[in-house]
Amino acid sequence: DVIMQDTYNFHGKKRFHKSNVLLKNKKNNISYNILEYYFIDNEYSNLFNNTFFYDKYNFLIASFYNTNEITKEIKDKIGKITKEYNNLFFQIFTLIIATTLFLVLFTYIFSNFINNIFKEYNDKLENKTLSLEHWKKRFELAIIASNDGLWDIDFKTKKIYFSDKWFDMFGYKKDEVQTFSDWFSLIHNEDKKNVEKLFDKIFAKVDDTFICEYRLQTKNEGFKWVLARGKAFTNNTDELDRMLMMSMDIDKNKRMKKELLDVEYLVEDGKIVIFKLNNDKDLTVKYISNSIKTFGYTKKDFESESMNFMNLIHEDDKNKMQVAINAALKNDLPNFTVECRIRNLANEIRWISSRVILIKNHSGEISYFYGYINDITKIKLSEEELKLKVEDEVKKNRDKDRLLIQQSKLAAMGEMLGNIAHQWRQPLNNVSLIIQFLRDNYHNESITKPQLEKFINKANKHIEYMSETIDDFKNFYKPSKTQTNFSIKESINTLLYMIKNQYSNDNIKIEFDCEDIIITGYENELKQALLNILNNAKDALLLKKEQKEFEAIITIFVKKVQNSLIIEISNNGDNIKDEIIDKIFEPYFTTKFEHQGTGIGLYMTKSIIQTNMKGKIEVENIKDGVKFIITLNI
C-alpha cells in the first residue's frame, strides 16, 4: 500500500496535500525528487542539500532555489505586488477623490443650506430693521408735524419726564419742572378744576384716556394754550404704573379763533356784510351776517330762502356779477373783487364793493363763495363829484394852456416883427430910391423907355420879395393841422433865413450842419419849438456880451442815429446854474424879468416836442455854455 504522507507548502503553495497526489503531476525538478525519495524510502538522505529532518515529529524541511526561477517569481511577485499596490493606490486615490468630491458637494450643499437659512434670517432682519426705521421716521415726522411735546408720568415716584420739545414750548429747563405737582401748579387757575376731574377718573380707573385743552404758564409768566392727550397704563397687579402724554401748542389757533369771534361780533351789527353762498344758479345764502339790516333786509329773509344773493343785485349789473364769477371759475382764481349796484328794501340804488373767496371741497370743486359786502355809495358819489371837478380843472388848464400858447406866440411875434423890419428895411430903401429917381427924371428926355421899365422891374422885384416875406411869416404862425413829410434841413434853413438879419445885427454867428433827412410830423410846430430855443440862446449871449466881449456862436447839428433823429442846439452863453437847470421847462419859470421874460417859451417847446412830436427834449451844461438835445422817432 502506498503510504499517504501530508505535505505542506509544497512549491510555496501554503496548503496541505497528499504526497501521492502531488506526485501524479511529477515534474523534473528537485522538489519532486525530494518528495518522491522520502515518499518511497521514508528516510533521510544526504543526497539532498539544504534539508532538515525532525525525527521526533517525522517532519522534513527542504529549502532550495533556482536563481532564474526565483528571479522570475520575484519579478512576478513584484509585478503582482506593484499591480496590487497600483490597484490599491488607484482604489485609495479614487476613494479619496470620491470622498473629497462628496465632502465638497456636501460642504457646498450644506453651506448653501446654511447661507439660505442665514440669508432668509438676514432678509427678515433687514426688512424688520427697515420697517423699524420707516416707522421711526414716520413717528419722528408725525411728532414734528404735530408740534407735540412728549412727557411721561411715573405714578409710583410722581416724577414726570419731559421731552426737549416740551421744554422748548414753554421755555423751562429740565430741573425746573420734575414732579406732577410742579406741572399741576403751572396750570391756569380757571382750568385746574377741569384737569383735576379728568385725572380723578384716571385714578379711579373709570377712564384711561386724557384729552383736555388748558392754559399753562410759560417761563416769561405768560400763559399758552395747549391740547394734551394721554393714555394710562397699568402693571401686572392692575395698579396704575405710568401715563404717556403729548402736548400740542394750540395757542395761535385759540387766539385766532377768539379774534375771528370778535370780528364776527363786530360785523354782525356793523356796516360790512359777511356772507357764505352756495355755488348754484341763484347763489342761495348759506350764511349772512345780521349787518344786512343796513340794506333793510333781515337774516330770516335769506334763511327762509325767500331771498337769494342775486335778488340783491341791480338788474343791469347781474350779468356783470355772473361774468366775474364765471371768469373766476374758469381761470381757477382763488378770489375776485367786483363793484356793482344793489337795491335795498326801499328800492333805492346803493353801490357796493364785494370781495369773494372761492372755497373748494375735498374733491377740488368750488362749493362755496365766502366774502363781504361794503357799501361804497358815498365813495362813488365823491368820485363823481371829483370827476366833475377834475373835468372842470382840465378845462381850466386847457384854457390856461391856450392862453400860454397865445402869449408864447405873441412873444414870438414880437421877435418876428423885428425880423420883418430887418427884412424889409433894405428893400424899402431901394424902392424909395427908385421912386425918387423916377420923380427927378420924369421930365428928363434922355431917359429912355427901356431904362424906365428896368427901374420899374427892380421896384416890383423888391415888392415881390417883401410879399414873399409876409407869406413866410404868415405860414410860420399858421398851425399844422395834420402831420406831413418834410425835409428837416429845408425847414431849419427857412427858419434861419427869417431870423438871420436880426442875429447878424447882434453879431451872433449861427453854424448849421445837417443831413438831408425826411421826417413826418408837424413842421410849423417844430419850427416854433426851435425858434424858442434859439431866442433863449440869443438872450443868454446878449446878456454875456454886456459883461465882456467874445465871439457869440450858436451851433445846430442834426444827425440820424438808428431810428431816431437827434437835433443838438448849443451856445456859448455860459452855463445854467445847477439849482435851476431842472426847472427851466416849468411854466412861468424865468430868470430874466428885467428883460420882460414870460417863462413860457421853453415850457411850450417841451409841450410841442413831447406831446405833438412824441419826442424827448433834454438840456445839459457844456464848456462855456448850454446844449439842448431833441430826440424824435423817424
TrEMBL record:
Q: Which residues form a coiled coil?
A: none
Q: Does the keyword Zinc apply?
A: no
Q: EC number(s)? A: 2.7.13.3
Q: In this protein, which residues make up the domain named PAC?
A: 210-262, 336-388
Domain PAS as annotated: residue spans: 135-206, 293-332
List the catalytic activities from the record: ATP + protein L-histidine = ADP + protein N-phospho-L-histidine
| PROSITE patterns documented for this protein | HIS_KIN (PS50109), PAC (PS50113), PAS (PS50112)
Instruction: Describe the location of the Histidine kinase domain by residue ranges.
Output: 419-634
Which keywords belong to this entry?
Answer: Kinase, Membrane, Phosphoprotein, Transferase, Transmembrane, Transmembrane helix
Q: Which domain of life is it from?
A: Bacteria
InterPro entries membership: HATPase_C_sf (IPR036890), HATPase_dom (IPR003594), His_kinase_dom (IPR005467), HisK_dim/P_dom (IPR003661), HisK_dim/P_sf (IPR036097), PAC (IPR001610), PAS (IPR000014), PAS-assoc_C (IPR000700)
Residue spans crossing the bilayer: 88-110
> Which PANTHER family does the record associate with it?
PAC DOMAIN-CONTAINING PROTEIN (PTHR43304:SF1), PHYTOCHROME-LIKE PROTEIN CPH1 (PTHR43304)
Recorded protein name is: histidine kinase
Give the species. Malaciobacter marinus
